[in-house]
Design goal:
Strand order of the largest sheet: 3-5-6-4
Oligomer: single chain
Order of helices and strands: EEEHHEEEH
Shape: globular
Structural class: alpha+beta
Length: 88
């Protein structure tokens, strides 16, 4: 099954590691550093045309990918709840 993140972007359910609130989680310096390093490495995909509200961490064959999303974590969790995905 797949989770629709917006702007014609879907990800496989089995690849999701976690769904995170971008505002709440970036309070931590470690998370800010993690996202900054991910951006430098080119593994962030911005699917947001508006102010981002969440990010989704996914497994990839060669590591991981982060999707920046304009949908709230609550919305993504509701969509994912049909697929038994828990939020972090």
């Amino acid at each position: 099954m797949y989770l629709h993140l917006g702007n014609d972007t879907v990800i496989r359910k089995d690849d999701i590691i976690g769904i995170f609130d971008i505002e709440g989680s970036t309070v931590s310096r470690k998370t800010r550093d993690f996202l900054a390093n991910a951006e430098k490495s080119g593994i962030i995909v911005n699917v947001s045309t508006e102010l981002p509200k969440s990010f989704v961490l996914c497994r990839e064959k060669d590591g991981y990918r982060i999707y920046i999303c304009q949908l709230s974590p609550v919305t993504l969790i509701k969509r994912a709840s049909q697929m038994n995905i828990s939020a972090q």
